[in-house]
Amino acid sequence: MNNARILVIEDDKFLRRACEVSLGKRGFTVLTAVDGEDGIQQALAGSPDLILLDMLMPKLTGIETLEILKREEKTRRIPVVIFSNSSIEADVQRAKELGAAGYLVKASLSLRELGDRVLEFLEQDGLKPEISEDPPR
Amino acid sequence: MSLLRPLFQADLAATAHPDGAAPSPIAPLCRRSCILAAGAALAILAACLGALRRDPDGTGRLVFVLGALALLLLGGAVYFGLRVARQALEESRRSREGLLEAKQRTLELAALYDTSRDVSMQYELSTLLQTILERAKNLLSAAGCAIFLYDVEHRDFQIAAEVGVGMPVGSHLPMDRGPAGHVARTLKPLILKDYASWPDRSEHIRKLPIKSTVLVPMMRGGELVGVLGVHELVGTSREFNEADARLLSLFASNAASAVRVARLLEAVRDSEERFRIAARCASDIVYDWDLAADSVVFFGARYDQLLAENQTVVRTRQQFWDTLHPDDLERVKETFHRHLEEGALFSEEYRVSNGKGGYRIVSDRAMAIRNARGKAVRLIGAVTDITERKRAEQMKTDFVSFVSHQLRTPLSGVKWMLELAMETLDNPEEMRSFVQDARTSTERLIGLVNDLLDISRLERGNLKVARRHVDLSGLTREVVAELDPLVKDKRQRLSVLAPEGLPEPWVDPQLIRQVVLNLIANAVKYTPEEGEVQVRIDAGAEGLRWAVRDTGIGIPPADMRKLFEKFYRAGNALAVETEGTGLGLYLVRLIVEQFGGKVWCESEEGIGSTFIFTLPLEAKGV
């Protein structure tokens, strides 16, 4: 069983629910946060293996949240994948500079593809989680 | 030189009557010599006659012959003596006349010098012309004077200035007629002893009381600047002569130089003035950068918006560089130096300090003025403040990216929910919930698109507005009824307070309905369960006043001002509800303003908010 912990920081409740259900079905333990502040709290408390971080959120933007996550000793080693519907070049660039592991555009992914990409990022990070032979469809 | 003048004048006065005051010493000497010679001749004659009478044949004859010879010699001596004396007298008279003339010339030159010096010190054309007039008139001790300036554009003369006879200053004279025209054609002085009888007089000055006149060309560098005329009035016997013409010609050539310099300076001043006006009218800052002196002069009407209050500001190059944004400095410097070396148009956009800690974005275009060796000596340029344009461009970009994000979010929701529904066909209950979420996302998408369309139409002012008298209380009660399930769900109390018989505003009911719905829905949304929402409508000085008060989370003061801007959401809104688009209140504002009303909010965080809008009642028929 894949027991990696994924933190989804997403302000839209439908997208949050979809990710939670889908990744949960893939066997991940899914934590959710509704904005950047909440996300930082969850990251500190929940020690996730990977963070999916939305960009356009009130209070703290994705970039601001990423800055804090990369500054905090407890969270800075957690790979953060930017998970946005915005594809502003400057944001992509800035996210890379800040050490984001990747940049995913929601609208161009199916939930299945999202699960696949999450696994790839986890492998890249050297965690090599135990993957079930036949992931649920 | 002018110090010499009294000296010469005294001298000239002394030589004014040469016969009386300074008799020649040669004349009495001649007279005495003649008397002595006549005496000697008589004595010789008497002695000879005496000797002849005493001895007519011998010695007496010899003596007589000798005496006759002596008389002849004496006569010759006297004759030649008198001739020499006469020549000497003539010589003396001539040298005295030469001296006199030299003295006269010196005096004239002295006058000319003074006159020319005065003239050359005038740089303002109208003052200069007046000075020339007075000086020329005084130089020839005449009654009047006029300056006819050659008008290159019209190819004729203009009476530029005159004194003494009342010529029509400003009017034009033809080149082919009149004394000035004659001088212009011949380029030689013209003396008219009796102007009235001269056949070629010009129309304009035919009837003027001019007796005699002298006109000379004003030439400079082989170019005709004008004609200078000096005249005597009818009733005087003064006639001008060659000497007058000569003196006036000398003066006229100096005057011509002065006129040319003054005209050039005037043209420069005109051109500079035009430049300044142009710079002021163009909403630009114009600068003139003296590269050798290392000073930049900025001037222009909108300078105050950029750097300083002054209209004209001088900076050194370094001071100028210091005003640039550090991130732009190297790039601008490089382009600048490349332009000075290579000469293409300098064109850059950069940020410049506004002196208050902020920056303005400017577009700067400039060209260098080069010397004969091609070295750049000055840089003339225009700076345009493009901050607003850049801001608008940025807003457009932000809008597009924000809207695409806002559209993609519910679209992703629909897509993913349907994907989940497909995967849960075996679990109808779960599947139904995913489909329900997909539907809600779709509705959000439709609402968002509708809001965007309305905003776009309202912003462009081409939304079709169907006005009629609207019963605002009735409309509000309808909306409240519509929201009833939601209110009941949250166990809130929602009431409408409105007196009977309120006046009816002249508005579009569909649009106002949207305003009322947005404001009440917001109040319900941000008020916790069992809270209270109250709508109150009444008529006041500003027209109809509609207000919704809630006991919700309130709005932080920092957010109040921005609340009605596009895409703005209060920082604490998310804690309650995360689906807002940031368009609702902006749309409310656009609609209310469309009908001449105002919208604002009063709030205290943690206690509640009141959103108020007004609608003018006199808007009927607008």
What would your notes on this structure say?
The complex is a heterodimer of chains A (137) and B (622). Chain A is an alpha/beta fold. Helices cover 42% and strands 17% of the residues of chain A. Chain A has one domain: Response regulator (Rossmann fold). Chain A has helices at residues 13-25, 36-46, 62-71, 89-97, 111-124, and strands spanning 5-9, 29-33, 50-53, 80-84, 102-105. Chain A is globular, with a radius of gyration of 14 Å. The model of chain A is unreliable at 128-137 (pLDDT under 50). Chain B has 622 residues and is α+β, with helices and mostly antiparallel strands. Chain B is built from 16 helices and 19 strands. Chain B has a 6-stranded antiparallel beta sheet, with helices on both faces. A 6-stranded antiparallel beta sheet of chain B has the order 9-8-7-12-11-10, with helices on both faces. Chain B has a 5-stranded mixed beta sheet with strand order 14-16-17-19-18. In chain B, α4 (59-120) packs antiparallel against α5 and α13 packs parallel to α14 (509-525). The longest helix of chain B is centred in the first third of the chain and has 62 residues, at 59-120. Classes of the chains: A alpha/beta (137), B alpha+beta (622). The interface between A and B is medium-sized, with 28 and 25 residues.
